[in-house]
Design a protein that fits this description.
By secondary structure, this protein is of the alpha/beta class. The chain has one domain (2-231): TIM Barrel (Alpha-Beta Barrel), CATH 3.20.20. It has helices at 2-18, 53-63, 73-78, 80-88, 108-124, 142-150, 170-180, 197-212, 220-231, and strands at residues 29-30, 39-47, 68-71, 92-95, 155-156, 160-161, 186-190, 216-218. The strands form two sheets. Strands 2, 3, 4, 6, 7 and 8 form a six-stranded parallel β-sheet that branches. A two-stranded parallel ribbon has the order 1-5. The longest helix is centred in the first third of the chain and has 17 residues, at 2-18.
Amino acid sequence: MIAWLVAATVIVCSGWLITPLSPQLIGRSVRRISTQEKVVALTFDDGPSADWTPKLLALLARHEVPATFFLVGSRVAKHPALAQRIWQSGHQVGNHSWSHTILVGKSVVSVREEIEKTDALLHELGYMHEIYFRAPYGCKGIVLSSLLRSLHKIHALFDVITWDWDNPGVAQITGGACKAVRPGSIILLHDGGGDRSQTLQATEEIILHLKNQGYRFVTVAQLLAYDSANRT
């Protein structure tokens, strides 16, 4: 009986450690920074999308809000000019793997290819800043975490999950995000992977609500730089 309990505990703990909200035991990851200042980062996964990314860029420009886009390499290959437009518009871009498959259980060689192939394409297209990584679905494991450490890559996760990929309704996306936000939060949203009309509308409502609450929007890089400055 004890052996079964130990085995079950190990399985549950191992499964939990894979999830995005668990601690990353190897390498550097960030879900939010600790601060009393009202700064927050909007992030968008799974793009670029020809249908939704341009509309989102227009919305962000209208409100003068910078964001961070974690791009899927294979989708960048299909829409290179749109990917360039993201950073040319003043936003940060990150690496969301090449194929957007769960990387847990994959070999070191395949995980490295997912990361390096996407990095190489972004650099080829002219993005010269540091490229942070975000695992598909936020799922991490020993292989990925160890590889990110060896590549000196920051794993940029999130502490505010909006569930927008399920299209639960604008009110739920907006309400969930605004309720969960704290100073230093990183908000997870999506500009690719499906119909993002709800995300588009909710993003504007989130921006208006948080600005009214005194929040200032920054990229993930700016958030981390702000954190580092506060620690000196």
